[in-house]
């Protein structure tokens, strides 16, 4: 018995390391991007470094989730680790932004396998009474990644070299690889099934078209340019084709049958709306602190500390409560607190103290945190073994899609409002600010020192109002998240699902 428990501990350690390197990677890279551009050049192409990773990750999530249902979790988790590590090592050797973007896409494919499959394995190997606790622990990893990623990225870049932000993944990934390969043994058989090739192709094409349209629109190309309109048109055509193909596919990547289950459909919708609102808070709180309060951009991890810590706590609490009450009750409380937190953030002004802002962040983070652990469990609850991977990856995909669409839409709202406010407060001088100007760069400590105090006050006021308006608009997806979770029904963690899950967990 002790040996089996130890084996389970090794599996958990491997999964934690695997999901940690995938979750923390983007935050580290974002921190070092200025140094990377200074070394490799390509200022006009740096957006591809992030876009390539996100496109590959999002496109891979539902595909790897389905494949893990068909052929087993282990092989695709291991494949994800290998691809992520190969991509990391190649990124460390990049000599141009183009090379780095290509290698980041390889990393993204690996990340698309790691994140959803990890949560599915947890559901497979742990008994129901422990799933909540473990999901809370793994959900907290994302909070830890958001906290320590920027700090690690800054330290490694300043004291080692930016290439080490990629090389550091290798030893951690190799340990995760070894632990999972040697200690995780799946206890069920898998039969070969027909792969939905056309479904995969149209889904990838649709995601790629949408991501590039959102990333390039308003930055490299105007929103009404033929390139952006063409990308949106390609997304629409390919997405409709995907929906039609999935209706007739023998083994669809995303099965419509899953959405007929009330709990899964409500959890998926909630994940989409939570993602859209969460990313708005995570992006614009640091901008407010830096641009309005005069904080430093280098301590972005510390700026979000109250938000991060409260979300980590809520993730753990949500996981534990899942074994005691319905998912609906937990998530209605979560969405209500989230709604209150976003409402409070929408009231901040230049006169708001850092203490009050921290309290608002604590409320917001506590509301967000439940979704990290609970939605992953509620989406899988009641699913057959060979649907769990697809179900979990679909929820992860929709959360990422919500974040991408959310930051694009609310980013447009904030930038346009910021420029309009500047024009009103500064007159013609406000027109000199580009529509896509980044407030973090515009209001850096170096820039602020060169601006007269009376002008600085007006710019800070304009930025504060524009961030407030972004938070006000972000209340809409939070409201829809509350509406979604209210439709979850009476579903709760089930403690009797055929063979003992405890036996399964100890057999691995």
Automatic annotation (TrEMBL):
Location within or outside the cell: Cell membrane
PANTHER family xref list: MAJOR FACILITATOR SUPERFAMILY (PTHR23501), MULTIDRUG RESISTANCE PROTEIN 3 (PTHR23501:SF170)
Annotated ranges, domain Major facilitator superfamily (MFS) profile: 11-448
Topology within the bilayer: Multi-pass membrane protein
Higher taxonomy: Bacteria, Bacillati, Bacillota, Bacilli, Bacillales
Protein's organism: Paenibacillus chibensis
Ribosomal protein found in the keyword field: no
Protein name per its UniProtKB record: MDR family MFS transporter
Pfam families for the chain: MFS_1 (PF07690)
Coiled coil: none
CDD domains: MFS_Azr1_MDR_like
Transmembrane parts of this sequence: 46-64, 76-97, 103-126, 138-156, 162-183, 195-214, 226-245, 266-289, 301-318, 330-349, 355-375, 396-413, 470-490
Keywords: Cell membrane, Membrane, Transmembrane, Transmembrane helix, Transport
PROSITE patterns: MFS
Domain of life per record: Bacteria
InterPro entries in UniProt: EmrB-like, MFS, MFS_dom, MFS_trans_sf
Predominant subcellular localization, coarse grouping: membrane
């Amino acid at each position: 018995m002790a040996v089996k428990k130890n084996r389970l501990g090794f599996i958990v350690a491997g999964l934690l390391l695997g999901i940690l390197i995938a979750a923390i990677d983007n935050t580290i890279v974002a921190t070092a991007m200025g140094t990377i551009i200074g070394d490799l050049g390509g200022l006009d192409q740096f957006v591809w470094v992030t876009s390539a990773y996100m496109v590959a990750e999002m496109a891979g999530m539902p595909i790897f989730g389905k494949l893990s249902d068909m052929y087993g979790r282990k092989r695709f988790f291991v494949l994800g680790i290998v691809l992520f590590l190969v991509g990391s090592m190649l990124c460390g050797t990049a000599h141009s932004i183009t090379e780095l973007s290509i290698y980041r896409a390889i990393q993204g494919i690996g990340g698309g396998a790691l994140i959803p499959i990890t949560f599915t394995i947890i559901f497979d190997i742990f008994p129901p009474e422990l799933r909540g606790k473990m999901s809370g622990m793994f959900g907290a990893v994302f909070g830890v990644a958001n906290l320590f990623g920027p700090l690690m990225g800054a330290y490694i870049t300043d004291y080692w070299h930016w290439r080490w932000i990629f090389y550091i993944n290798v030893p951690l990934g190799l340990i995760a690889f070894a632990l999972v390969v040697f200690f995780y043994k799946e206890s069920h058989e898998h039969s070969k099934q027909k792969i939905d090739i056309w479904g995969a192709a149209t889904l990838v094409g649709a995601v790629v078209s949408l991501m590039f349209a959102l990333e390039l629109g308003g930055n490299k190309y105007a929103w009404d340019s033929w390139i952006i309109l063409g990308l949106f048109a390609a997304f629409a055509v390919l997405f409709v084709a995907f929906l039609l193909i999935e209706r007739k596919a023998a083994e669809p990547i995303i099965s419509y049958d899953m959405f007929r289950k009330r709990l899964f459909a409500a959890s998926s919708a909630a994940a989409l709306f939570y993602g859209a609102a969460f990313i708005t808070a995570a992006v614009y709180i640091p901008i407010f602190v830096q641009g309005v309060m005069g904080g430093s951009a280098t301590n972005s991890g510390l700026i979000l500390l109250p938000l991060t810590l409260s979300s980590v706590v809520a993730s753990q609490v949500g996981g534990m409560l899942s074994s005691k009450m319905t998912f609906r009750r937990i998530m209605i409380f979560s969405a209500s607190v989230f709604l209150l937190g976003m409402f409070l953030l929408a009231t901040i002004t230049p006169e708001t103290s850092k203490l009050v802002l921290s309290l608002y962040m604590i409320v917001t983070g506590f509301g967000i945190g439940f979704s990290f652990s609970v939605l992953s469990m509620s989406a899988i609850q009641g699913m057959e073994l060979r649907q769990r991977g697809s179900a979990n990856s679909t929820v992860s995909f929709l959360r990422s899609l919500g974040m991408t669409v959310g930051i694009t839409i609310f980013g447009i709202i904030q930038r346009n409002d910021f420029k309009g406010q500047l024009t009103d407060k500064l007159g013609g001088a406000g027109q000199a600010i580009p529509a896509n100007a980044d407030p973090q760069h515009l209001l850096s400590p170096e820039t602020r020192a060169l601006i007269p105090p009376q002008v600085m006050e007006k710019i800070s006021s304009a930025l504060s109002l524009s961030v407030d308006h972004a938070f006000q608009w972000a209340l809409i997806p939070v409201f829809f998240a509350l509406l979604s979770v209210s439709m979850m029904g009476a579903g709760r963690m089930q403690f009797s699902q055929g063979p003992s899950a405890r036996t399964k967990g100890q057999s691995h």
